[in-house]
Write a structure and sequence with these properties.
Structural class of chain B: alpha+beta
Strand order of the largest sheet of chain B: 3-2-6-7-8-9-1-10
Structural class of chain A: alpha/beta
Shape of chain A: globular
Shape of chain B: flat
CATH topology of chain A: Rossmann fold
Oligomer: heterotrimer
Radius of gyration of chain B: 22 Å
Order of helices and strands of chain B: EHEEHEEEHHEEEHEHHHEEHHH
Number of helices of chain A: 5
Largest sheet of chain A: 4 strands, parallel
Number of strands of chain A: 4
Number of strands of chain B: 12
Distance between the termini of chain A: 37 Å
Strand order of the largest sheet of chain A: 2-1-3-4
Number of helices of chain B: 11
CATH class of chain A: Alpha Beta
Distance between the termini of chain B: 47 Å
Strand content of chain A: 5-15%
Chains: A alpha/beta, B alpha+beta, C alpha/beta
Number of domains of chain A: 1
Order of helices and strands of chain A: EHEHEHEHH
Largest interface: B-C, 39 and 37 residues
Helix content of chain A: 25-40%
Chain lengths: 154, 333, 286
Amino acid sequence: MFEPKIIAFLCTWCSYTGADLAGTSRKSSPWNIRAIRTPCSGRVSPEIIIKAFDEGADGVIVLGCHIGECHYDSGNHRTAKRIPVLKSLMELVGLEPERIRLDWVSASEGDKFSKVVTEFNETIQALGPAKWLTKGVGVDVPVLDETKVLQREG
Amino acid sequence: MNYIRQEDLHNWLADIGEEYRLTAPVEKDGVILYEPIQSLDEIVWDFEKPVNSIKEIFFPQTEILMELQISGNGSDEIKEVIPTEKNILLNVRPCDAHGLNCLDAMFLDDSPPDVYYAARRQNSVVMGLSCSHMGESCFCTSVGGSPGDTVGMDVMLSKYEEGFLVELLTPIGEALFSDLPVTEQVIEVESPFEKGLFPVPNEEILKKSFDSELWGMQAERCISCRICAYVCPTCRCFDIRDEVVGGSNGTKQANRIRCWDSCASEAYRRIAGGHNPRASKIERLRNRVLCKLYYYPQQYGMLSCVGCGRCIDACPVGMDITEIMSVLVEGPA
Amino acid sequence: MQTKLLQEHAQMLLDTAQVECVIGYSLSPRGLTRPMFIYRGEDVEQLVWNQHSSHNLAKYLREKIVDLGDTGKVAVVLKPCDTKSLNVLVAEHKIDRLRVHVIGMACSGVVKDNNQERLQDRCVECEMKQPLVYDYLIAAEHTPEVSPGEFDQDSWQTEFEDYSSEQKAEFWLAHFDRCLRCYACRQVCPVCDCPTCLFERDDSLWVGPGSSIQEKRMFHLGRAYHLAGRCTGCNECERVCPVNIPISKINQKLAQVIEGEFGFRAGIEAVPSPLLTVVSGKEYGG
């Protein structure tokens, strides 16, 4: 069974705490989610997400506080507007938009955290490995055929 | 003179392509570029000059110089990556070959020689194609070149009727191309039409011009991109970085890479601490022109402008080195 | 006629010291139309206005205003599309509108390449023949010499929509492969003006200076994203690319997404991009 490399950006105040709660409540979550804690979901800039894919990620999920509950007032507003635009950009360049997901998980929603990341993991498993890299990073990461690319006519 | 028909040349190239990597002008999306070819049909025979120059073959845009394993406990490993591929460059214009000659002065003839450039250079053969006319922006004749110049080439082809006239110029050229199916012909060769000359400022003029206002007037429209340096056959400034590519258990794997850089860009001359001696466009333009017409001749005895005109064609805002040279010599219009 | 009016107006501005510099277009010794900076009334005859005036002169404003010190105004010749860039710069507080005297030119389009008798793609579908902002308007007096020709942006998009993800990826990689990282696209763009570009950092934080296709793709995608909601579609980036990469297609796609999601088009008013504001549309604290 293909085990995707999923990067989860979790904001300190809400979703990371929510993830902790999922853990302490013994809610089951996929083990292959790699969590990265940021001060706010608004910190997650588009370069970070594109770089995650460039380094071999198969999916990126960004979890922040609900609108109106951000610890920094409006950080999550930026995320809310940013992620759909980034998804369209990546779709244009050949990455399936389902590989990037944004959702809201508060500190008390351990259940929701577990549910959301499990769903996301299943989505990525169904999509298969990301065909995004042009040079091998790991042993079994598929790469786009560079020679085929170079031979194409424009 | 020796003459070869186009089909015979084509077939001969098909054989030699087994052992050598062939690089020739190809067309991609309306742009003509020197690139390694996958099939002989890609070669463009009728063109003025490609957008890029052949310096990419010997001095690539990015190359890995060394592979490093850094363990931090005294047992670091360094592996030099010396290129080994053998190249034949086809349809190289005289200005490009002249540019190669310029680069040789710095990379090869200077001491110590650059091993990466040297490895590529000694494994490569340059097959030139003379120009039947000078292009709109060409001015090779003003800087010591000509449309039929053979400097820097191992073999020279000149278009004639259904094929080419062939001149073998160097021992390498003779060794490799001695079995070309040529025939002897008595031919009257017309010299290509040469345009009038642009004045080239000499050392005196350039020294006196250092504080002149004209640099400011010319530099204002520059947007400090680097197209001029990147398409130029002789521009050779580079940057070296160590980039981490992986590693585990405390050992870092890194590559030391060398890549193109240009004095036209704003950050080029910025030093640690933040000071930038060439912070303004005026200083950068002046440096670029003086480097080609004054500093390089002082150091290596030749101009480092070959008159190809690529910078004039490529510049987004119409900067023109021939205009600058004329203004330096004759004063503002 | 427009040229004459432009020259007269520029002369008046300089002679009465209302501005210290006029940024416009002139002809090079080779006959190319290119940006020009005029400082004295007697030089205004060098100014031209023609269908080769493609450059977006709003690019030079920020630097020029800094050069002129604390006071000092600069006049600039702007086409309707260029005035949109000005709006974006004003909205982001990068230019003090009061220090710019805009000479707005009514425009019937600029030609594609200096040799061809065909309008640029962006001009064919342009509905904006009059500048959006101006301090002095120079209207058009006759129909253009070059007719629009046919261009169907939609057909490219529809065909592209049918590509699979992998085909789309290969399409763009084939283009990015030719990229030289010359940064001409970035340098010519009026709204791309970070003091140190994120993708050119000395510590190679996001992307190194090298030319692997992946790095070039990161540069182009990152730059396109940073322009979302700010790019006004002047397409200068595509014109200056020495290797014909269709950069403007990415920017156009993002402009469509922004219009769809937020109902916003960059540069129509001096209002910042929705990506810079909070959800209610106002700037934070407003």
